[in-house]
Amino acid sequence: MDADAPCAPVPERAIVRTRGDNRAPAPIAALDLGTNNCRLLVARPDGDGFTVLDAFSRAVRLGEGVEHSNLLGAAAQARALKALRICASKIRSHRVSDARIVATEACRRASNGMGFVRRVAREVGLQMEIISAEEEARFAVAGCAPLIDPDAEQLLVFDIGGGSTELIWVDMSRTPPSRRESLVRTLAPSGNDGDQCANARAAAAHITDWISVPLGVSTLHERFADIGDEVRRFGAMSHHFEAQLDRFIPFRAEDRQVMSTRLQIIGVSGTATTFGALHLGLPTYDRSKVDGMWLSANAAVAVAERLLTEGTESASNRGIGPGRAELLLSGAAILMTVLRSWPVVRMRIADRGLREGMLYGLLQQRRIAAQ
User: Fold this and answer.
1) Which end of the chain is less packed: N or C, by CB atoms within 10 Å?
2) Which domains does the chain have, with CATH numbers?
């Protein structure tokens, strides 16, 4: 990420405004339409943060088949529109004042992605934008700010999505522990204001490098679906993903030893949270037990080995839905490649990221407007 690059303006249509309640901070909302899931958070501003009022998540598999056809299919669009109508209803019922509504890799990749965005506006009434991989990465890091270890000097955040995986390396060695959380929060893009651009550049200067690998749990699964043996498929997926990291500066052998000093790794959403739930043996997923938990590297290896020996079907019997279990092997290949590339004693798991980062961006925009 170039610290000297100009801040990309947020299109006016990207920030949805309605009339709120003047007696209390009006709610804000963040909606993320990804390759696999449609997720919404509605929150009320609370000091420098926010309190979640409502949440929604549904598997829509918007990116189904995009890897081969380069098109969003009719059935996938219908599933996404159904979920988006529910989100629109929640946004209206909570009288949300500001909302950020984004689509990511599936719409970035599909040739009819912009056409689908226009269809959402026409049929659902939501003004959605397709954000860049860079914006997605910055949002993910900003959303994880509360989980930063005060003793960490280097931070690696990886976000395994359905269609892509973002890795962001932040150098915090010159930042006092008391300022690290607020520093990382400034990474959330929120507008084209001059002061905000200055803040973003100051924060970006601490980013050593970032990369968006066009491989997520769905795309990697589809690419190697013809290999029947799970052990062979896992090895092939791991090797293929690792080869995509060559352009990532912290992956270079000569840099790894220096950069791994006091390194914290945070795994965001999806595969990371599923690994946490499987390690804890939860009969049903419980965000309160998984979000923010520490997972040792040995425990992560044990989960991966269990998936390979027992098969991913076993995950379906441990509270993981069959659709997610099918994609767990490709997610495990990515997660274990990260831990093998940058060995740490433990990693932190975040059931947060993109949506929370967007909410922080909206809060920053409010503070700027109030000045």
Assistant:
1) C
2) 12-132 (3.30.420.40), 135-350 (3.30.420.150)
